Sequence to fold (300 residues):
Amino acid sequence: MRALQFTAYGGPEVLMWGDAPVPDPGPGQIRIAVRAASVNPVDWKVLAGVMSGGQPLAGPGYLGRDAAGVVDQIGEGVTGVFVGDDVFGRGQNTQAEYAVLDSWATKPPSVDWAVAAATGVAGETSERGLRLLGVQAGDTIFVDGGAGGVGAVAVQMAEARGARVIASASQANQDYLREIGAIPVVYGEGVAGRVQAAADGRVDAVFDVAGKTPVQELISLVSEPSQVLSIANFAAGQAGARVTGGGADSRPMEALAEAAELLAQNKLVIKVQTFPFDRAAEAYRISLGGHVRGKVVLIP
Ligand SMILES: NC(=O)c1ccc[n+]([C@@H]2O[C@H](COP(=O)([O-])OP(=O)(O)OC[C@H]3O[C@@H](n4cnc5c(N)ncnc54)[C@H](OP(=O)(O)O)[C@@H]3O)[C@@H](O)[C@H]2O)c1
Fold:
């Protein structure tokens, strides 16, 4: 098969779309023939070597944390999914013709492959964030960075739970935030004041998906520092906010099932920009730029 790969850490220029061994699913995993795989910021962080813990690269590096495709092999102990099923989910090295998934949900037939692929990481992360913050109907929540991959899904998932959502983006994405049902504010200096004005009352929780606003400013919006949760500013914990990187607090199968349901009901709509795999460098450059609207997705 072919897979996106690199043999030295670097930027998008070191990416190659070349031959690679086909992976086998282990216990509890499935393998899919990939129809689409999204680009997440973690991919260019891995590519740059910042996630390597200082270790040199041992052999080719592969990329991708989510994908959608057709099941072609089932690992030991897996039930409820069959060869030929259309699924999407999270896995490793998904930017390839075949990939192994650890968690998945059935792709609703009405949903495009690229949109389904874009939902894996963003859907799981959003469900985790909203659950840890205890967001429920009637709450007012501020999503800092609402136009990006995780942000746009978090906004719509929170709305589906009956929350009122205020979200930040650049000036260019204010209409996009309105389109997905959020009350838009422009991020940057003074953002807390703009959120307070938009909330006209209390803010119950802050989901920081961008990691750019000083955490004290976000904490000033809520009654308890722990009602601020960040996925992108890991120093925020020192100020009493909470941080999450997944792992033990992740419930991926439940999260993906919830996301699939919202996609099927059109309550979750994700804007995608697609690139063929052999133009992955362009897609990575857009993601690296930090101003993605929705998601960037690779297709074979
Ligand atoms: N901890 C975890 O479990 C976890 C999981 C997934 C992702 N992440 C991390 O979360 C971050 C976001 O991921 P993503 O996939 O959503 O990225 P993305 O798709 O690249 O989106 C980035 C968003 O950040 C917004 N932004 C830029 N500057 C901002 C600022 N000063 N204030 C508020 N928002 C700003 C951009 O809005 P404009 O386009 O309008 O400028 C853009 O929509 C990344 O660092 C990623 O690695 C962590």
Remarks:
- The mean pLDDT is 97.
- Residues 275 and 298 are 5 Å apart (CA to CA).
- The radius of gyration is 19 Å.
- The chain is about 30% helix and 25% strand.
